């Protein structure tokens, strides 16, 4: 997928996330925002998978370490959802690790527990925030 297409797709994800936040407001569990975002993405005909397992390869053996991507959009963009007071470095490390392990270019970290969703939205490209 070209960068231009990836940007268009990430814009659709942001728009859908804003719609969920506008309707629900902050203060709910992550799982509630996740279910509603699934519905918004589906309504927008965005291709995605839920709770995608990331195996760890250790000494040439695939192991299930329990890592799961919240949402994988169009097999291109990793979306990690949070509903926390503040995004911490560990949350950023998590999405950077997922990008590396799953060999994807773009990751979105979205924290729904903010008065304005744009303040809880972070984009990571090739392991660097953009």
Note down, in words, how this protein is organized:
With 130 residues, this protein is of the alpha+beta class. The chain has one domain. Helices cover 38% and strands 33% of the residues. It contains 3 helices and 6 strands, in the order ααβββαβββ. β2 (61-73) and β3 form a beta hairpin. α1 packs across α2. The model has no long low-confidence stretch (mean pLDDT 93).
State the secondary-structure class. alpha+beta
User: Average pLDDT across residues?
Assistant: 93
Tell me the span between the first and last alpha carbons.
Answer: 18 Å
Q: Hey, roughly how much beta strand do the residues contain?
A: 25-35%
Q: Total strand count, please?
A: 6
- Spatial arrangement of strands, main beta sheet: 1-2-3-4-5-6
The largest sheet, given as strand count, sense and whether it forms a barrel, is: 6 strands, mixed
How many domains comprise the coordinates?
1
| Count of DSSP-assigned helices | 3
Helix content: 25-40%
* Shape field: globular
């Amino acid at each position: 997928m070209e960068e231009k297409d990836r940007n268009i797709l990430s814009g659709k994800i942001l728009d859908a996330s804003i719609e969920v936040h506008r309707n629900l407001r902050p203060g709910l569990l992550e799982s509630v925002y996740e279910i509603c975002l699934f519905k918004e993405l589906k309504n927008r005909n965005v291709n995605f998978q839920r709770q995608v397992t990331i195996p760890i390869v250790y000494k040439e053996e695939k192991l299930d370490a329990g890592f799961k991507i919240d949402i994988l959009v169009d097999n291109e963009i990793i979306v990690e959802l949070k509903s926390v007071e503040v995004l911490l470095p560990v949350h950023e490390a998590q999405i950077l690790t997922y990008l590396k392990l799953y060999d994807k270019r773009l990751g979105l970290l979205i924290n729904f527990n903010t008065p304005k969703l744009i303040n809880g939205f972070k984009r990571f490209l090739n392991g660097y925030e953009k």
